[in-house]
Amino acid sequence: MTATSPTESGSGGIRDAIRATLYQNRWACLGLNLAVAGLVASYYRWPASALFWEALGEWKTRGSYLFSAVATVLAAVVLPTVVQRLMGMRGGPGQARRLGWGALYWAYRGIEIDWFYRLQGRVFGTGTDGHTVAIKLLVDQFGYSVFWAVPSYLLFVLWVEHRSLRKAFAAADRALLRRSYLSVLLTNWLVWLPAVALVYSLPPPLQFPLFSMILTFYILLITVLVKT
Q: How far apart are the first and last CA of the chain?
């Protein structure tokens, strides 16, 4: 029998998790982004959709950060919970507490993402040309997501599960954190690398509404995949 060092075992586990993430989510993520591309194409190519997009932009402009908070909570908490109930999925003990904290988290995260989109617009401009979209995409996915969005999300999940930061950190070893971080980050990239490019290809008032649509589809998709 050949002995395997903990480091080698951990690295193999991480590689396996990465391969599994890529394999399991490839078609679902492709289908999701094709649907989003269709939405963006309707804005630029289908005049009949103009009223819908104009109304959406007006709602976002009037609602400002309140729109961002409410839309994100609906997409990330309310709709998935309704779908889970319709599919016969129960949250188990502590669901009300998790939903409450989840609503607060996603309300904040919606405001944060809206602010981040506005910040990018101020720094890099509000154009929808390829150069501007590419810069915003790189900052979004390889700066904001890598160093803040994904790590803070994982920390929130652990905190809710263990009810304290101290217990959350104590319960997670480095290998688990690396594996979870890489899996979440790769899944995030599979969906959001192309999706964010599509988001930034729209005028500023429509960027967050499209993000909300993508988030809704994404979380509902994950909910269905978990059930099946």
A: 38
